């Protein structure tokens, strides 16, 4: 538990700090050094310059680097500062890392739209989007230090070298630490505008690519790491909401007087879709919530039955008119007319819940005059770095100070601001008392924002030699990019391709789920390839090898995965291997080995092998951990997890009826081989998860001759497939 009244504002931190600040702009360090003892100059600099990161060097040699990304277990708290420190030749043991302020204009990385800047820890984009900025800035910081040492010693800068936070002059055998250089630092008139070729050769890296312990792990191990749910403040009160089970339904409270009379209840705050309660303690708030008597309206979700809707989706897929066209290459219709054989298969996936470990929560304190607010939250941030709070309170964004905390799991759910906005609504009514809002697990399961249910209809054509000449992919479901992403086959040489999205909305709350559309759509694509290979009498590796002939990096992952999994070796009795290729930033081919209990329908995954090309890998051990976590999360969603909806209402409520993978279900081994590369780093957090469904389905097809086409692969569905 943490009690705090600390003002974490950047300006106060700067005012109270010694040393010097190196301001890093879009093109690197700005041509100015400012003593941290001069707050007026710092304030002026902050007002004038588009800063993207801030680094402080103290006289004791301590280097403080702000981390602009959320830390939810993926290691960004280490990888970004490590990149800077590498080019700076810093002593990593002297580097401290802190969360940056949530100000995209200052600390954002290049966004998806030209000229935009984002602080958005999603899509495995963090290391990739900050890599060049941090390298260049680190190199320029090193130049400032060397230039200052050259003037101090009155020697040419060309005679100097750096290592481990020291500047060396070999001819005179002198060296000086970065900390000792602080009194002599001065900014050169110009700074080198380093090109990539002028930065370190990856072969010279001392930190990048090495197994460096993550900076936040010790605090997480000893319990001192602060998550939002740990925040305790003087006079803090608690809020909960009853949102019901029917998404979009409007409540009418019928026993308000009774609730207000309950012990500790301070206020009832109605929302369009919920009834909010604020009480002195969390227990009192939850007790009052259980006593609410609410009449709920109908909503768009009324009548929706998730297991019956697929028949409707099939009809939508069969309609003549096109949906929203995503890809159109060549002429699929013409290729189909001249094909030797055409295949058409439907693949399906049910709703999936995020199941993040830390329940959704936030603390918001609104000033008594309503003119400013402080927010403590674990967030994946977003296009609005103030998380919707300014709009709720009707104040300027600069009047809202967001204190980012560690996240106890995100997976896309914490890139949604609903829980922060709800807390702001309650806090506005209770100002100036700090309000802590907590979603219970039941709240989050029943009123979650799920990975969409969808149907994918795939049609493929082959010529007389078995070559795939056309590939068509129709996605039916709600959510746009949530269901329709990842339909491209950029690494497969198929001359005629078509992909579309056909909308089918049912009023269910939806959100990005780890890897977004890659999970369902790569399941469909990769499973389809194996079904074609089986029918054509081809080895799945040989089929992909031919398709990847023009994509050498993808092909290299295929060859390596086949090698490390001993693909061509005879399988153990009652076991089979399946393969899948996925691109999600990084490129990866995965192979799994499974067995099936034909009496229970339970699939057991024994081994998983992955060959990964992620470009330059900043933290190899962490990348392997990401792949392992991705595989296990993928297995959980593929073999266990399922949200079902009857008459618009979610049927699951907690982990007793929303099943997750258990310890006894994990593979005997997960082996990841990282291919050497000098390309820019790519994300790895969402590469492993999508390959699981297709690899398991393909292994099942090889083992039994039966396809699995509906996620999750529950024992009932497996038995149905076996008996079909």
From TrEMBL:
<protein>
    <submittedName>
        <fullName>Isoquinoline 1-oxidoreductase beta subunit</fullName>
    </submittedName>
</protein>
<dbReference type="InterPro" id="IPR036856">
    <property type="entry name" value="Ald_Oxase/Xan_DH_a/b_sf"/>
</dbReference>
<dbReference type="InterPro" id="IPR052516">
    <property type="entry name" value="N-heterocyclic_Hydroxylase"/>
</dbReference>
<dbReference type="Pfam" id="PF02738">
    <property type="entry name" value="MoCoBD_1"/>
</dbReference>
<dbReference type="InterPro" id="IPR012368">
    <property type="entry name" value="OxRdtase_Mopterin-bd_su_IorB"/>
</dbReference>
<dbReference type="InterPro" id="IPR000674">
    <property type="entry name" value="Ald_Oxase/Xan_DH_a/b"/>
</dbReference>
<dbReference type="InterPro" id="IPR046867">
    <property type="entry name" value="AldOxase/xan_DH_MoCoBD2"/>
</dbReference>
<feature type="domain" description="Aldehyde oxidase/xanthine dehydrogenase a/b hammerhead">
    <location>
        <begin position="222"/>
        <end position="300"/>
    </location>
</feature>
<dbReference type="InterPro" id="IPR008274">
    <property type="entry name" value="AldOxase/xan_DH_MoCoBD1"/>
</dbReference>
<dbReference type="InterPro" id="IPR037165">
    <property type="entry name" value="AldOxase/xan_DH_Mopterin-bd_sf"/>
</dbReference>
<dbReference type="Pfam" id="PF20256">
    <property type="entry name" value="MoCoBD_2"/>
</dbReference>
<dbReference type="InterPro" id="IPR006311">
    <property type="entry name" value="TAT_signal"/>
</dbReference>
